[in-house]
Amino acid sequence: MPNVLIIxxxxxxxxxxxxxxxxxxxxxxxxxxxxxxxxxxxxLRKIIPVVGTIGDSTSALQLIEKHNIxxxxxxxxxxxxxxKPALFETILAAGKDLLKxxxxxxxxxxxxxxxxxxxxxxxxxxxxPFGSFEPPSLESLGTTPPPNLPPAKQKYEHSVLAARDSxxxxxxxxxxxxGRGGAA
Length: 184
Prior knowledge:
Blueprint: E1 3-7, H1 12-24, E2 28-33, H2 36-44, E3 48-51, H3 57-66, E4 71-74, H4 83-101, E5 112-117, E6 120-123, H5 151-161, E7 167-172, E8 175-178
Parallel strand pairs: 1-2, 1-4, 2-3, 4-5, 5-7, 6-8
Helix pairs in contact: 3-4
């Protein structure tokens, strides 16, 4: 059963992902939380709280090794040009360190899995209760990045893809998330 660490376990996507993984019964789900109080709320949802931060590669590696994490899922939104790329660089450094510590006699070195959520746009608002909850058109949904993707997001996705030799990576592009209200 893989151990999955969710970064952002109380956010819109992270909370739903945690709940679905717990319901599946096929994963041990860990949620990164800054305080024990918030960790208590995760534990109520059968998510194993990991109290701490991963601000540097040493603390990230210690956290990953301590809890035998197989996959890290970053569900943070891309709000600025520094936070999400810095978090990725930390996970990448920890993944490289993890590969170095794998015994050389093992059949295959185990790469740390890294999944990142990219290109989220909220759709729907309580401001316009009649028109804004219409589903997006099929033409607006696709497998290629939209042409107006900001350069910072393009650079981030390219750096994630370039890390394939150190991390087992995936980029998920939900495209549209129904807001269900103004807060989302």
